[in-house]
């Protein structure tokens, strides 16, 4: 999953990569849950650094999008990829959950413009904490297979 771990935005154009530990097919049995991470959850952060903008910034708003999304709000595996002779896994998605200040999780619904996360700026910096994890695809009759899992997401932020 391409996003950031952590990546500062401001004077930066850096893409980040979040690498999840390998999971066994038998581990990936549950579909996405709104407030529970899936298998082998990995923490990552997106840091919006506007400290050079001076005082006055109050809040940052962030949404995520991807050409690899589905109606459940998760990221589909790019099943067209093959790497080092290894074909893509089937029926595996990546769930992204926002982690709030109380460590509660809420599903980030990819490509849902109404699913906007908000963080306050402190000294010109807003930090979004997330978990990425494997979940079973919600495709009817789909069976999880071994293979490569790769996807990407784009984040967009605005501030006030």
UniProtKB/TrEMBL annotation:
Family annotation (InterPro entries): Adhesion_dom_fimbrial_sf (IPR036937), Adhesion_dom_sf (IPR008966)
Entry's Gene Ontology cellular component terms: pilus
Transmembrane parts of this sequence: none
SUPFAM superfamilies tied to this protein: Bacterial adhesins
One GO biological process term: cell adhesion
NCBIfam families xref list: PRK15239.1
Protein name stated in the entry: Putative fimbrial protein
Annotated source species: Salmonella enterica subsp. enterica serovar Rubislaw str. A4-653
